[in-house]
Amino acid sequence: MIIPRNALLMILIVAISVVVAACAGDLEPPADGEVTVITTTYPLTFLSEKIGGDRITINQLAKPGVEAHDFEPAPSDIRAISNSDLFIYNHPAFESWALSAAASAASADGDNSPTVTVQTINLELAGENHGGHAEDHSTFDAHVWLNPLEAQEQADRILSAFIEVDPEGAQIYTRNADGLDVELQALDDLIGKQIARCELDSVVVSHLAFGHMAERYGFSQIGLAGLSPEFESGPAQIAGVIGKMNELGISHIMQEPNVSDRLAETVAAETGAKLLTLHPLEVRTSEQASNGIDYLEIMKSNAGALQAALRCS
Ligand SMILES: [Zn+2]
C-alpha cells in the first residue's frame, strides 16, 4: 500500500501528540513535601518556606533557641544533608563547617545533592579570593538577611535552586517568590519610614550583626561583642562603649535573645541604660517558633526597637 505523503505527515504529527500527551500525563507534581531541603538558619528556612510552599519539606539544622554561630553538625546532620535534595547555607563566614559537611554528605550518598550558598556576593571579598590563598572570613559580615533587599537577593538564589532540583514546580515557585518579593519590599518601605527622622544615629548592640541593616537605613552600630557573640569585648573596649554612650547620649542597649544577658545587663547597670530587644534572626527563640512568629514580624519589632533607641519621630 502506498500512503500519500500528506497522510504520512498526519500520522507522524498524531504519533508525536500522543507521546507528548503521555509525557504530560506522567508529569504528576511531587507529593506534598517530596522535595527535601536542609537549611542552616532561620532566614533561609523562612525564604524557602515562602517559595517552596507545600512542595518542599524543610529541616533546619540550628534549632530554635541555640546560639547559631556556635552550631556544629552532628553525624545525624551530615546524614540528613546526604539524604536531601538541596542543602542551603549562608556563607563560610557564618557556617565555617558547611563546605566540609556538604563534601562528607556527598561522599556518603554519592549522588551529590546540590549545595547552594545563599549569600549576596561581596565583590571586595571575591576580589581577594585569588592565587589559592584561603579567604579571611573573620571580618566579613554574613548577616545580609537583616536588610530586606538583600534577603530578596537570597530569595532569588533559593528560587533558582528550587527550579533546578524540581523543574516541574517552576511556575508555583516563581509565583510564590513574586509574592515574597512584594512582602520584602513592603517591609523595607515600612522600616525606612519608621527610622527616617531620628535624634540619634548610633545604637549599642550585643553583637555586630546589624551592619547590612545599618547601612540600608542610615545608622551605626556599636558592639558589645564582634561579628560573632563569642568575640566579647575586653574591659578596655567596654569602657570605650560606655564612653561613647555618654558622649552621644545613647540611653538604650539592644539585647538579643539566645545569648547570655550578662554583659548587656552589666553595661546597662553601669550607665543607667534601658535594655531593648533587637533580634539578629539567626534562629528564632523556641517561643517564637512554636507561636509561628515569622521573619516579617520579628523585623517589624526590630524596627520598633530601633525607633525607640534612635529616638525617631
Ligand atoms: Zn551573628
What this model shows, in words?
With 313 residues, the protein is of the alpha/beta class. The protein has 2 domains: 157 residues, Rossmann fold (3-Layer(aba) Sandwich), CATH 3.40.50.1980; 113 residues, Rossmann fold. Helix content is 49%, strand content 11%. It has 12 helices and 8 strands. A 4-stranded parallel sheet has the order 2-1-3-4, with helices on one face. Helix 4 links the parallel strand 3 and strand 4. Helix 6 packs antiparallel against helix 7. It is globular. It binds zinc ion (ZN). Zinc ion binds next to loops.
Name a few traits of the molecule.
single chain, 313 residues, alpha/beta, Rossmann fold, 2 domains, 4-stranded parallel β-sheet, 8 strands, 49% helix, binds zinc ion
Number of domains: 2
Bound molecules: zinc ion
Numbering strands along the chain, what is their spatial order in the largest sheet? Answer: 2-1-3-4
Instruction: Indicate the mean pLDDT.
Output: 85
User: How many distinct beta strands?
Assistant: 8
Order of helices and strands: HEHEHEHEHHHEHEHEHEHH
Model regions low in confidence, pLDDT < 50 over at least 5 residues: 8-27, 120-134
Summarize the topology.
Blueprint: H1 5-26, E1 35-39, H2 42-52, E2 56-60, H3 75-82, E3 86-89, H4 98-109, E4 115-117, H5 123-128, H6 148-165, H7 170-194, E5 202-205, H8 211-217, E6 220-223, H9 235-248, E7 252-255, H10 262-271, E8 274-277, H11 286-290, H12 295-309
Helix pairs in contact: 2-6, 2-7, 3-4, 6-7, 7-12
This protein binds zinc ion.
Zinc ion binds at residues 69, 143, 207, 209, 228, 280, 282.
